[in-house]
Amino acid sequence: MAKWHTSAEASEYLKDTHGVEITPRKLRDKRTQGGGPRYTRFGNSPRYSKADLNDWAENLATFESTAEEPTRNGENARGAA
């Protein structure tokens, strides 16, 4: 049976396993704003599976420079979408 992790456990797992430093508070923010790992709720408690944490960490966007980062309009500094 899969173990479901609290935000604190998920934060620790991401740091230890993937080197991704994200606080439990930032995970909470991403639950409301989007962009975080998939989660489910057990009552009022959000929980994360290792599979979803791994998938999210392995698919984080990486950039070689700030010119590649998307802007608010979805294009990068070079004008590409």
Features:
81 residues; alpha+beta; 3-stranded antiparallel β-sheet; 3 helices; 38% helix
Structure description:
The protein is an alpha+beta fold. The protein is built from three helices and three strands. It has helices spanning 7-18, 24-33, 50-58, and strands at 4-5, 40-42, 45-49. A three-stranded antiparallel beta sheet has the order 1-3-2. It is globular and about 45 Å long.
Summarize the structure.
The chain has 81 residues and is an alpha+beta fold. Helix content is 38%, strand content 12%.
- What's the N-to-C terminus distance? 41 Å
Provide a count of the helices.
Answer: 3
Instruction: Provide the helix percentage.
Output: 25-40%
Radius of gyration: 15 Å
Helix/strand order: EHHEEH
Q: Main sheet, how many strands, which sense, barrel?
A: 3 strands, antiparallel
Topology:
Elements: E1 4-5, H1 7-18, H2 24-33, E2 40-42, E3 45-49, H3 50-58
Antiparallel strand pairs: 1-3, 2-3
Helix pairs in contact: 1-2, 1-3
